[in-house]
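Honest question from a wet-lab person: if I give you the sequences of every part of a complex, can you actually get the arrangement of the whole thing, not just the pieces? Trying it with mine:
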Amino acid sequence: MSERQDPVTGIEAPIYLKYNFTAGAAPARFLSQIRKGVLTGQRCPRCEQVYIPPRGSCAACGVATEEEVVLSDKATVESFTIVSIPIPGNPIQPPYIVANLVADGANISFIHLMSECVNEEVHIGQRVQAVWKPEEEWDYAMDNIRYFKPIDEPDVPVESIGTLPVSGWEG
Amino acid sequence: MSQPDILNQAFELGFTYTRSTGPVVGRFLTELRDRNIVGIKASDGRVVVPPMEYDPDTAEALSEFVDVGEEGEVVSFAWVKEPRESHPSEQPFAWAMIKLDGADVPMVHWIRAGREADVSTGVRVRAVWAEETVGFITDINGFELVPEEMS
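Yes, you can. This is the full assembly:
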């Protein structure tokens, strides 16, 4: 190469981790149900906590969980983050809200998006409900739910978050 | 409870790092792009390849670059029978510690050889340059065995 080039000052050094994820029995059941638009958890036979998504066992008691529990698509905000910085490869434009939500009938939270809300007014204890994709787009995926939006119900006191029955919150 | 379908999905997690090379490794890579291999002289006179920024004994900054040969001697090696996707060769090959002529410490690279029996400690090898060099360690596209009568 006759033309003088600039000195090398940097290199690309990407690391790619390639996984083949096989859902176990409990997650496969969960995914098969969410494909039909139903959120399901599993109840621990010992401590009676309901887990979503179910892993097939209770992490606290160390026993298998088999009883399936249909949950509501209404939930309570347990905690949340306003994401202001774009994440490479993530198509969602900030600012947006990622929240830990506890579905009615469950005792632990899962992570999902919130939208149709004023970001600055999102708060712990807020009541929300799933906004589903059109049924023809449903797949084995949690993003069958586009996001959760606030609903007009009174806030849940912090000490009651994660204890609501599947029938919901009376306030 | 009915038996669920077995659900499989491939996914890839990528960390798309770029790294600054600094004045010493940057120089090494720049020289590689020009099909030249450089080391650096340490405080005790040893020539270290690839060059390092700071002396391994005194921690002084190093700056005396030294050209080394593109041939060298195998100090040790490990034969890879079944290369994986991220390996530099689709054929079986050897990872090797290669002490280049003029260097005092070996560097890691790979050797293209037909059979494991062709590689041994002390055997002579020579860099194979990539058709297009870009300023990366893969500008050396492995080392090939130097026939004994030529070495």
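Two things worth pointing out. Chain B has one helix and ten strands. Chain B has a mean pLDDT of 94.
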